[in-house]
Amino acid sequence: MSKQELVVLGQEDRSAACCPGLTTAPLDENRAVELAKLFKALGDPVRLRLLSMIASRAGGEVCVCDLTPAFDLSQPTISHHLKLLRQAGLIDCERRGTWVYYRVLPGTLDRLSAFLTTTQAAEATV
């Protein structure tokens, strides 16, 4: 029997995941460009706070009307930051009447997490 036949579903070798981590292999140019867009979007304290507020909200989504009062910034400035997070693929939104509700895209956060996880940390969670 080959090793592949012995792998139990859900218990695959995490070091062979589709997205190699920072310590497993050098980035190719395309992957570096993709990740740089995400990190650039997160490189602003306001956007980082917005992402955190959205991700930590019970129910997984938050109305823009609940985000704006948390900052000493104008509503158009908050909308601009949310737009940049959307363009980076970190969040998505849905309009309901006059309000827009934002939610985190977990797949993108999972890719960032997989990239930043060291091999030792990944092996410790297996």
Structure characterization notes:
With 126 residues, the protein is mostly helical. The protein starts with a helix and ends with a helix. The N terminus is likely disordered.
Q: What is shown here, in short?
A:
The chain has 126 residues and is mainly α. It has seven helices and three strands, in the order H-H-H-E-H-H-E-E-H-H. A hairpin with a 2-residue loop joins strand 2 and strand 3.
Describe the structure using short key phrases.
mainly alpha; disordered N terminus; 51% helix; three-stranded antiparallel sheet; 12% strand; 126 residues; single chain; 7 helices; elongated
Q: Work out the number of β strands.
A: 3
Number of helices: 7
Overall outline: elongated
Low-pLDDT runs? 1-17
Mean pLDDT: 81
- Helices and strands: which structural class? mainly alpha
Binned, the helix content reads 40-55%
Q: Provide the spatial order of strands within the biggest beta sheet.
A: 1-3-2
Based on CA atoms alone, the radius of gyration comes out at 18 Å
Biggest beta sheet summary: 3 strands, antiparallel
Q: State which percent range the strand residues make up.
A: 5-15%
Write down the secondary-structure element order. Answer: HHHEHHEEHH
Ends apart, CA distance between termini = 23 Å
Q: How are the elements arranged and paired?
A:
Blueprint lengths: L2 H4 L22 H14 L2 H11 L5 E3 H4 L7 H13 L3 E6 L2 E6 L1 H11 L2 H7 L1
Antiparallel strand pairs: 1-3, 2-3
